[in-house]
Design brief:
By secondary structure, the chain is α/β, with parallel strands linked by helices. Helix content is 36%, strand content 14%. It is built from 13 helices and 11 strands. It has helices spanning 13-19, 46-51, 64-77, 88-97, 114-126, 168-177, 190-193, 227-240, 246-256, 259-278, 297-303, 320-328, 376-393; strands at 81-85, 105-109, 130-134, 150-156, 181-185, 203-206, 221-225, 283-287, 310-315, 345-349, 366-370. Helix 7 (190-193) links the parallel strand 5 (181-185) and strand 6. The termini are far apart. 47% of the residues are buried. The chain binds pyridoxal-5'-phosphate.
Length: 394
């Protein structure tokens, strides 16, 4: 633990993202820990080698670059231990595989990040683990789905396409009463806008690729565990050999330092754009938890400290050619997967094909929107021109 982490508990989040995990005088006074590249770590004596008696023993088990970001994320999420992974999805896999055994039963939200379903339905199923998908709005009703062999409950709030807000504290209370682990994908809110460990979660997952890296230039994941879950995470990580590349970890640490100011802008511009979109005649509904019209708004106000820049809109019915005309010629909004970078994005989506516990019903085409750091006036002008093309094509 570095000198700057000693009084970490008393510091506010904006300070924490700037200072946590840095120890300049351990690096000749340079502000940022350097990129340590390395596999072999030398031991000075046979005795030290036999006992593995030093802080760093092998590149896969961590370097000062890796430890710095792990310390910072653990502090900001409020957990006891963080392990980094080469992508957000690898972090999801690491989290599940650290806790499940053959014969287990899992409860996973139906609104979960879609590839997480592949892990459950393909790999975990093959290993003898059964998954039940549940209505994300189930709250403490999840108690009725718990079986004698249920090992864990998995939440993601809001869902990153359909934006259902889960009652995480209620689900935590059931998990505690029934002796289940509670794992959560906390990517949407980032470690700043939802504090999973204050709401009873045992393990929090970040697709750091999104807001922590924040610049669409690296893949990275993080799994953070509370003290009770840390041993499992450590063993799982060791068994799987999960580790992230030094350059990506450096970019994650660099992104983290500006997370607070970036999220403030994503929050403000995202809400402004959501309100503007809600007033558009082409739009049937806007799915943004910060809007009073959102069914999960009360939970968002109760549990969250802010909103990130990701939400969805449902268009009124229009021909597919209208949607293509709107999206094909946008000047500022890019079309592509992932989000959390400085730039605005828009993609059509349709979850009807993979939902199993709930039915997705929408008036027209659904679009997922990421509001970046541009001036909202320019973003409105870009979408306004897009809506004009949509109307012309209809
Ligand atoms: C993107 C994403 C992931 C996976 O992260 P990658 O870095 O793309 O592998 C996991 N969960 C959520 C909610 C995501 O949006």
């Amino acid at each position: 633990m570095s000198r700057s982490d000693e009084d970490a508990t008393s510091r506010r989040p904006a300070t924490e993202v700037v200072h946590s995990g840095r120890d300049p005088f351990a690096h000749h006074g340079f502000v940022n820990p350097p990129v340590y590249r390395g596999s072999t770590v030398l031991f000075p004596t046979v005795e030290k080698l036999n006992k593995r008696d030093q802080e760093y023993t092998y590149g896969r088990r961590g370097t000062p670059t890796v430890r710095a970001l792990e310390t910072a994320i653990a502090n900001i999420e409020g957990g006891a231990m963080t392990k980094l992974a080469p992508s957000g999805y690898a972090a999801v896999s690491l989290a599940f595989l650290s806790f499940v055994e053959a014969g287990d039963h899992l409860l996973v939200a139906d609104s979960v990040y879609q590839p997480t379903r592949k892990l459950c339905d393909f790999l975990l199923k093959r290993l003898g683990v059964e998954t039940t998908y549940y209505d994300p709005l189930i709250g403490d009703g999840i108690d009725a789905l718990v079986r004698p062999n249920t090992r864990l409950v998995y939440t993601e709030s809001p869902g990153s396409q359909t934006f259902e807000l889960q009652d995480v504290p209620s689900i935590s209370r059931v998990a505690t009463a029934r002796g289940l682990w509670h794992l959560m994908d906390n990517t949407w809110a980032s470690p700043l806008y939802f504090k999973p460990f204050q709401h009873g979660v045992d393990v929090s997952i970040q697709a750091a690729t999104k807001y922590i890296v924040g610049h669409a230039d690296a893949m990275l994941g993080a799994v953070t565990a509370n003290a009770r879950a840390a041993k499992h995470l450590e063993k799982g990580n060791e068994a799987l050999g999960t580790c992230a590349g030094s350059e990506e970890v450096f970019l994650g640490a660099r992104g983290l330092r500006t997370l607070d100011v970036r999220l403030e802008r994503h929050h403000r511009s995202g809400l402004e754009m959501a309100r503007w979109l809600e007033s558009r005649p082409e739009v049937a509904r806007v799915l943004h938890p910060g809007l009073e019209s959102h069914p999960g708004h009360a939970i968002w106000k109760r549990d969250f400290l802010g909103a990130s820049g990701l939400f969805a809109i449902i268009l009124k019915p229009c021909p597919p050619a209208g949607v293509a005309a709107m999206l094909d010629h946008l000047a500022l909004f890019g079309m592509g997967f992932s989000w959390g970078g400085f730039e605005s994005l828009i993609v059509p989506f349709d979850p009807t094909g993979y939902r199993t516990a709930t039915r997705w019903q929408a008036e027209g085409q659904a679009l997922r929107v990421h509001i970046g750091l541009e001036d909202p006036a320019d973003l409105k002008a870009d979408l306004d021109a897009g809506f004009a093309r949509l109307r012309a094509a209809g």
